[in-house]
Specification:
739 residues, mainly alpha, Transcription Regulator spoIIAA, 3 domains, six-stranded mixed beta sheet, two-stranded antiparallel ribbon, 12 strands, 59% helix, 5% strand, elongated, disordered N terminus
């Protein structure tokens, strides 16, 4: 007779009490007590009821009491032996569900502890949006303040304490911002004044709409290079004013994209940029920036090109190197480096503006010595138009241009937001205040939309300037207003001072600012932490250096997504065994002492079960079923004869603690697997343990709960294993009594 099909009530008692005694001895030998612990009072009562029913049905001379005593004694012995062998600490052996003398299936959990109805659950999630702690419903002002956070903090602004810090940080950041803005404009292939334009309107808009107290937005080296690379690739024919118009259109489209993504709460999309991709991309971009600035340091007029083309052209025209520009650039870089090092040691709170000092110094030297004249012939900035930028709407009449800039706008929007939100969250966590990532998306987008109307190319957050702002006492977004005011002053009065500044000094400013972008140490660290992350880092870095920022970014994202898809379709799983003397289950490949249980396969699947990995789930389970007998033999399960074991495969127990959800494709496959195993001889049943709410809901709605059986769904893995062991033991008793 089938062991799996044998119910407790089918147990046939024998009239020979000695036979029962011998059976108990055989059970103790073949099925040691630990295979039956902890035992269920419900199962115990079922065994007793089955024994009584069988005794009455067969007319056996063995009293039902004897059979029940045999089972009860075996159960109690199992409990005693388990408790005696346990070597866990007292702290670990706390009261938990596995300690209770009752099996908790999902069915009796729902009956004993009232399960919240799905409609009630939805009501629990419904709430009125309240304004602050006063419990009042949202007003028109509170709705507006969501988009303009300045309305929240400005009415309560502390002019005595906060104003001093904001003024100091605003001035300090400004003296760093102005030279960086002029230098970064070169990276975007724009005239110097456009860097100042990027430092004006976007900052004002962000001051009104940003939720960060310290973020300083404006021109940023990485985004500046990205803009130039994307526009030149999309519109290679654009030159001069046509190129500037294309950049302004890109800025407008970038802002619109960011606003739309913010309104749709799509900040999560940026999370697909893995840390290894970002690190490899920024490091590769830093190398590209250094290479692009080498021509200014060397005083060579070579055309814009890829990394290898630039290196080739430098080597080809090495005889044209201007020693004066090299001397100016190198000496200026060394001077800025040592001033920055001194700042780190002696002027942490109010750093000396090394870039501004060096620019002014070499500007004076250049003007006094006439470095732009023979015999020096040092390239200088030249005339910089002053005044507030006039308003102009980017030209969008050419649909072909707009179409070709869609992808660059999406990439610029994503990278700009990624750079900004990483800085925002860094200082929000460090200084213990809350920010709204979606509102940051909207604020940055509006800054770029409005900025494009006033000749600003795409702006983003700057880590170095934000760090200075926080270290010099910035308290609120008011420091942005101070910065904007000083930029206006620069545009109105100080632009003539930029005319004699050598380009090699601006290149030195750019190169020195790239220190924070170089992340070779992170790549080295990834090699020891995660090899696949290292290779993604390396692929992104190499593709960025060799193919440019657009190719590098897309390649890195593709590599990251492919790895994510591989992890999704081939997630981690484990064949579990029980550690001797415990109720702990571990991967048998990691723990050689883990016991493979007779008649049972225990498998853990660590991912949501869906269309992409359902076939992998089936393949893994089939592999475990195919190697079941080898696994039993490896762990010392005795053989009866040939390939037949004394413990045939009867249960597939799935630890569902890592399965958070299930889709319809996986439901259909699971139904087929359950139905197929029931038709085997002996039949194999599924037991599901530790199912989370979404998984239970999916199983119930699909009818799989009935297919599997609610009595086969347990709240913990150990209870499921114990139930299977007890049933196998009962079936063994029935089979041997019948024999």
């Amino acid at each position: 007779m089938s062991r799996q099909g044998c119910d407790v009530k089918d147990i046939e008692a024998t009239s020979d009490s000695d036979t029962g005694l011998k059976l108990s001895e055989r059970m103790a030998h073949e099925y040691p007590p630990q295979t039956l612990q902890p035992n269920s009072q419900i199962e115990l009562e079922r065994l007793e009821e089955g024994a009584v029913a069988t005794s009455e049905a067969t007319g056996s001379g063995l009293p039902s009491d004897d059979n029940s005593h045999f089972v009860r004694d075996h159960v109690e012995a199992a409990d005693d032996q388990f408790d005696g062998r346990s070597h866990l600490s007292d702290d670990f052996q706390t009261q938990n569900i596995d300690d209770l003398k009752e099996f908790f299936t999902e069915e009796n959990i729902n009956k004993r502890f009232r399960r919240t109805d799905s409609t009630d659950f939805k009501k629990l999630l419904e709430f009125k949006t309240m304004d602050g702690d006063e419990g009042k419903e949202r007003t028109a002002l509170s709705r507006v303040s969501e988009w303009f956070p300045i309305l929240d903090w400005l009415p309560t602004y502390d002019g005595k304490e906060a104003l001093q810090g904001d003024i100091l940080s605003g001035i300090t950041v400004s003296v760093i911002l102005v030279p960086q803005a002029v230098a970064y404009a070169m990276l975007a292939d724009l005239p110097p004044e456009y860097g100042l334009y990027c430092s004006l309107v976007p900052i004002l808009v962000y001051a009104l709409m940003g939720t960060s107290r310290h973020l300083c937005i404006g021109p940023f080296a990485l985004v500046s290079l990205l803009v130039a690379d994307l526009v030149h690739n999309a519109l290679p024919e654009a030159e001069g004013q046509a190129y500037i118009d294309a950049v302004m259109l890109l800025s407008f489209m970038t802002g619109v994209t960011q606003v739309v993504m913010g309104v749709m709460r799509m900040g999560i999309v940026v999370s697909f940029l893995a840390g290894s991709v970002i690190s490899g991309f920024t490091t590769g971009s830093a190398i590209l920036i250094m290479t692009s600035q080498a021509k200014h340091i060397l005083g060579m007029g070579i055309p814009r090109g890829s990394f290898f083309m630039t290196v080739y052209n430098i080597g080809l025209n090495i005889s044209e190197v201007n020693p004066y520009t090299v001397l100016i650039g190198v000496s200026g870089a060394v001077m800025m480096y040592y001033i920055k090092e001194a700042n780190a040691k002696y002027c942490k709170h109010i750093p000396v503006p090394e870039s501004l000092i060096v620019l002014l110094l070499y500007g004076i030297v250049s003007f006094a010595a006439g470095l732009d004249q023979a015999p020096f012939n040092v390239p200088v900035v030249g005339s910089v138009p002053g005044g507030f930028p006039g308003m102009s709407i980017p030209a969008m009449t050419d649909t072909s241009t707009v179409t070709r800039l869609i992808q660059p706008a999406i990439l610029t929007a994503s990278i700009g937001y990624m750079v900004s939100i990483s800085v925002v969250q860094l200082y929000a966590d460090k200084l213990k205040y809350n920010v709204n990532p979606d509102q940051e998306f909207i604020a940055l987008g509006c800054s770029n939309v409005m900025g494009s109307l006033f000749l600003a190319y795409p702006a983003s957050g700057s880590l170095s300037r934000t760090a200075v702002c926080a270290n010099t006492g910035g308290r609120t977004g008011c420091h942005n207003l101070i910065q904007a005011g000083l930029v206006i002053l620069t545009l109105m009065v100080l632009t003539p001072l930029f005319a004699p500044i050598p380009y090699s000094i601006l290149a030195a400013v750019v190169i020195l600012a790239l220190k924070n972008l170089l992340a070779f140490s992170e790549g080295k660290e990834l090699w020891s932490l995660s090899r696949h992350d290292f290779w993604i880092w390396m692929i992104t870095f190499v593709s960025t250096v060799s193919g440019g920022v657009q190719v590098g970014l897309i390649t890195g994202m593709t590599a990251s997504m492919l790895w994510l898809l591989r992890q999704t379709s081939n997630p981690w799983w484990a064949h579990l065994g029980r550690l001797p003397g415990t109720r702990i289950y571990r991967n048998v490949r990691r723990y050689n002492s883990a016991e493979v249980l007779p008649g049972i396969i225990v498998m853990r699947f660590d991912a949501p079960l869906h269309f992409a990995n359902k076939d992998f789930f089936q393949t893994v389970l089939k592999r475990l079923e195919g190697t079941y007998f080898q696994a039993q033999a490896k762990h010392g399960i005795p053989m009866a004869s040939g390939d037949n074991l004394t413990a045939p495969h009867e249960y597939n127990i799935i630890d569902c603690s890592g399965i958070t959800s299930i889709d319809s494709s996986a439901m259909n496959l699971l139904r087929e697997m359950v139905t197929d195993r029931k038709k085997r001889s002996p039949p194999v049943q599924f037991i599901l343990c530790s199912c989370k709410g979404p998984l239970r809901t999916g199983l119930r709605r699909s009818g799989l709960t009935e297919t599997i059986g609610e009595e086969n769904m347990f709240v913990s893995l150990h209870q499921g294993v114990s139930a299977a062991e007890l049933r196998i033991g009962a079936n063994t008793v029935a089979s041997q009594l019948a024999f």
